[in-house]
Amino acid sequence: MELEIMLTGIGGQGVQLGAQVLAQAAALEGREVMYLGTYGGTMRGGNTDSTIVIADSAISTPPMVSKIGAALAMHHEFWRDIEGKLRPGASVVLNSTVFEREVDAEGVNIYQVPATEIATELGSPVSASMVLIAAYASLSGIVKLESLIQEMTQSLPSYRQQHVQLNERALRAGYQALDANLAPCWSQTEVAP
Questions:
Q1: Is residue 19 included in any domain, yes or no?
Q2: Assigned domain for 56 exists
Q3: Which residue has the higher pLDDT, 34 or 40?
Q4: Domain span at 169
Q5: Domain with 86 in it: what CATH number?
Q6: What is the pLDDT of residues 113-146, one digit of tens each?
Q7: What CA–CA distance (Å, rounded) separates 113 from 128?
């Protein structure tokens, strides 16, 4: 089984870090993973997307995909390109604090998480991507919270280690933001140990 996940937003929202943490957490749990991040022409405010393909056996899909089974949207600005890739039944997790557009895709399941609001209340608005990926992890069962925390700690560069505790709190809050296994992506027999 393979699942294609896209994270999208604008530069500076932590999309690339969030995707890296989610991808590495899946690898830590024994999944096959491919990950590709793309950036617009500007560092902050331009489009930024990441595609992750997670599978329980060798991956046949390259990380440049035409269809996706899940989307995590930090911002609405560049959403239209992602929206057209959604498979019927896809899970869409929106950062409802800043996402200001209607999702115009039939047959998808939409979950709203006020990720920026939650992260701001925790004292770190830049940790919103951690809230969003953890909410999706809880919703889908794709990875465990402990794996996200471990990989976030290892993914932060040495000059950003002061953010470990805030990001951990954001991951924990995000994991509680949606009901666990509301939209499972793996059957119980397929879940890695």
A1: yes
A2: yes
A3: 34
A4: 2-177
A5: 3.40.920.10
A6: 999 999 999 999 999 999 999 999 999 999 999 9
A7: 10
* Two tokens, residue 98: 């800043």
Return the residue matching tokens 């996940």: 5
Q: What is the pTM of this model?
A: 0.91
Total tally of structural domains belonging to the chain: 1
Determine the average pLDDT of the residues in 17-24: 96
Q: Is position 154 within any domain?
A: yes
The answer to whether position 184 is within a domain reads no
Q: Does residue 157 sit in helix, strand or coil?
A: coil
Residue type, 52: I
Q: Answer yes or no: are the C-beta atoms of 70 and 141 closer than 8 Å.
A: no
The H or E element spanning position 37 is strand 32-39
* Tokens 């991956």, residue located: 59
d(CA 40, CA 46): 5
Q: For residue range 78-93, list pLDDT tens digits in order.
A: 898 899 999 999 999 9
